[in-house]
From TrEMBL, chains A, B:
PROSITE patterns: HTH_MARR_2 (PS50995). Transmembrane segments: none annotated. This is MarR family transcriptional regulator. Keywords: DNA-binding, Transcription, Transcription regulation.
Amino acid sequence: MKKDAEEWINRYVDAYMVVTRQINARLRDIFGEGLTNDQFLILRLIAGQEQCTSTYLAEAVAVGKSSITAIINRLDEAGMIQRTRDENDRRQVYLTMTAHGESVYRTCEKQMQEVISPYLFHFEDDKIEQFIVMFEKLAFLMQDTGGRSN
Amino acid sequence: MKKDAEEWINRYVDAYMVVTRQINARLRDIFGEGLTNDQFLILRLIAGQEQCTSTYLAEAVAVGKSSITAIINRLDEAGMIQRTRDENDRRQVYLTMTAHGESVYRTCEKQMQEVISPYLFHFEDDKIEQFIVMFEKLAFLMQDTGGRSN
DNA sequence: GTGAAACAGTTCTACACGTGAACTATTATC
DNA sequence: GATAATAGTTCACGTGTAGAACTGTTTCAC
């Protein structure tokens, strides 16, 4: 282990805990009854993926497939998404947003922008850019070492 | 809103989602039956705070006090923490770890270090430092604008 | 001093999310 | 054509969250 790794990790975890929990709380508040944070994330992934499947979602959010089914069922009951079976491989179910889902998602996306953007004003542009690039590299590293079944 | 804010936020959210969910999944796996991620976080806060109260925890994790009671109850039943009433102000209940709680927490802390540290090797020291400093500033900003009751 | 307000914490009910194991239906393999 | 692999679902159970109602304690205003 790197010499300063322990201290870095402790500082990272402490800061990350505050930031993520505070952001989550703020999003929870503004989304209100419309959507939970997790549902927002799932819609976001569906929006960004052609022919999105449960398996893809499960890997993307690092969670079992049965959890995805539960979330998808609720979004389905709320009329926000549709399931479409692939006629060539009838095991696959593709998930797409309905017009209503799209509308709710876009609203929440705007609200998210409004909640987060004020914090950006406290930093210089190149600092923000560096921070995000670093975060993206981390994300890339972690995505390539996932894996899980069920 | 800043000109590039929207793009930054989208990139940030996408990366942050991957990183936090992947880290959570890995921690869930190694902690196993011993402790949930949230319980670990709560113990971490208790460890780092003299005379820790439910109210402090609720603010720190940006959650209602009733949620804290639930978590504390489970940790109490598991024999990991103790509640002590303040004799000067009998409304206050101070939370401390038992020896057993301390032991479980330290074990999980080590495991967390081992899970996260490999990723640090992919970055230069000063990059890591800058990243963490930025995160800490963000955390500081967010902490100063919280607030919630119940 | 006493009554009202504020505060710390708990309980209760309801729901969202997570797991893992067992299951259905479909496709691939040999 | 039997067997294995894959995609997704269902079920039972534990955890975390909210919010409202509650207890007990302290503070404050008069």
